[in-house]
Amino acid sequence: xxxxxxxxxxxxxxxxxxxxxxxxxxxxxxxxxxxxxxxxxxxxxxxxxxxxxxxxxxxxxxxxxxxxxxxxxxxxxxxxxxxxxxxxxxxxxxxxxxxxxxxxxxxxxxxxxxxxxxxxxxxxxxxxxxxxxxxxxxxxxxxxxxxxxxxxxxxxxxxxxxxxxxxxxxxxxxxxxxxxxxxxxxxxxxxxxxxxxxxxxxxxxxxxxxxxxxxxxxxxxxxxxxxxxxxxxxxxxxxxxxxxxxxxxxxxxxxxxxxxxxxxxxxxxxxxxxxxxxxxxxxxxxxxxxxxxxxxxxxxxxxxxxxxxxxxxxxxxxxxxxxxxxxxxxxxxxxxxxxxxxxxxxxxxxxxxxxxxxxxxxxxxxxxxxxxxxxxxxxxxxxxxxxxxxxxxxxxxxxxxxxxxxxxxxxxxxxxxxxxxxxxxxxxxxxxxxxxxxxxxxxxxx
Length: 446
Description:
Elements: E1 25-27, E2 33-37, E3 47-48, E4 55-56, E5 61-64, E6 73-74, E7 79-88, E8 94-102, H1 125-134, H2 147-150, E9 161-165, H3 175-182, H4 184-198, E10 203-208, H5 212-222, E11 228-233, H6 242-250, E12 265-269, H7 270-282, E13 288-294, E14 302-307, H8 312-318, E15 326-331, E16 338-339, E17 353-358, H9 359-362, H10 375-379, H11 386-394, H12 398-403, H13 414-418, H14 425-445
Parallel strand pairs: 1-14, 9-10, 9-12, 10-11, 13-17
Antiparallel strand pairs: 2-8, 3-5, 4-7, 5-6, 7-8, 13-14, 15-16, 15-17
Helix pairs in contact: 1-4, 3-5, 4-7, 11-14
């Protein structure tokens, strides 16, 4: 019997609560109006290339990524541009967004909308990267790093492993699980496309052992694709983190402040692999994604295929409404997700789920003094000292926090989850990382 692998350092086992794991993907109706934020990727936001009153088709370019780390943006609907304005986004801030009034559903002629599986990969590696760039693809697991940049291997570096992340270790979320079951063939062809772009002959799809149906399904499909293997992994959070997944599959450790390419790896989410297939084989830009809507009080936990820019309230209504005892609406899962200020905010490229938490679940316990139990240190998958770093952030000692490698924190929330004193460690860590990142950017500019 094969011993299932996992990462060695830290980690926790929160309740999975995969309430929608057996619910097939449902196509959500197109809204009457969409709000498309210009900043939907890690890095610089795209710049609008349309103006008020312009008529648009589905898939038409509406925002251009002008920086190296940026991504193009495409219209998820057909209709008329109402305005370009600063509007509330999922972070709670008002940022530039394009508002489009929907009129029908007319797609750009270049997009292949058939369901026929296109298996032959005709483009060269450089042509694949360019196609991915023009499609506006970003990491679909939530990080939203521009996909084409990940495929541009730096000079002197070599990729040995492409790792496809099908772990979905965040409690409640099931969008990736359903994708693997319903779009497995497309995901594998997307994986082959990524392999060709990276000039690598080995790919591993990592899936936690709580998804045996997905493991079996993709394992059968992978038999037709040389070089692709499916690896079942132990169940442990946060195994979906890049560095943790690399350790689990290859036993290689990414050095502090370095990227996976330093150990010959590139990691892509299963949703990204599907988007790559659609971009390269179907000429379809990133205009829609799968989103889980769930929660213990939700009447109809669901997985929806939804256009980017759709107001979150429409997904909640499709899940049979907001429960009366809802305490928080969280964008993402309970560990790494963030509370949303309003159900009016739109779905974006990085939206993996909407979690409706009951009041009794979302209530924050009263913080008490640290008892020096060291639990936060034991569970940290990056080998950090979360309480010490959070204390430095609380005292605004950001220079010292940088020296103590706060930027290595992956914001998984394991420390806060396990803290018996209910200290909001993750909040302080996020604050410290934001301040240190700003300081680093300022130094680089000057």
